[in-house]
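User: I'll paste a sequence; please echo it back and then give the predicted structure.

Assistant: Echoing your sequence first, then the prediction.
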Amino acid sequence: MKISKSEDGLTYFIKSEGFSYGDFNKAAKVDVWRLVKHFEFSRAMIVRLSLRRDFQIDSGLSFFLSYQTLEISPDFYDRADVSFPWCMKIKISYVGKTSFWFNAATCCQKTGKILAQNFCQAVRVSLASRRPIELPAKGADKYIASTSKNPPQRFTFPQITPRREQSFTYTTKALPSDTDSNIHVNQSVCFRYCHDGASLAALQGNIFSKFSQDFAYYNVKTFSVEYVGEMNAGDDIDVQCWEDDKNQCVLYFIISVRDKVACRCQGEWYTNPDGDILSMKGKLNICLNANL
């Protein structure tokens, strides 16, 4: 990967010559949580190169995500491959009192066309208290002049959960390998929990109107996650999912630990021209040049 930045030093770029084999699932498509991990890498890069200094992050402070939205274009599923050159760009789009927003995009290197976007809110927190800490004014001022005056809009999560017979719940255990340097379950793992829960619901639960297969074969259009609590290694994780009353292509999820909500999530999947959920395999072109 090659890393560079804009002349004003506020936008960073990562160039890659293709996705890795480990990014792909059984349907030969990049798993959503693997794409989210690539976006996480772009955030880690800008934190390391500038935000750690600008926002005065020492050993007692860190950044926690409180929200993120992923948007994927249909072209992403057609183009993503191990030999597809892509570029990721990231910048700060809004600065608040204790939090700020990242705006990142995955693009085609040749055309510059955006294939996927990620918008997320990060909060400066004390690792001891796990509470928000105000951003230093000097560091915030560096970005405020070039960012939006209003924060991006979040999705509106339904206030009422469905009856048990209208939803599906499965329980999994948070493993040490699910956690990150903040000693809690990594943000990307929540996407995997939801994916697995939806797949089990489609295959076993008989509660969805349009979904009946493993979700590896369906194409995510948008997916939003609101992080309201932490999950730790060893926790029993309950994942509840159900479909929207009006749009059966939209699913909702609640991830909880000991009956306490940790995440609220909403996803929408692409349909074909007939309005049915689009089910397809992706492209994984593995070319080997070797003298055997």
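Residues 1-154 form a domain with the Thiol Ester Dehydrase; Chain A fold (CATH 3.10.129.10). The radius of gyration is 20 Å.
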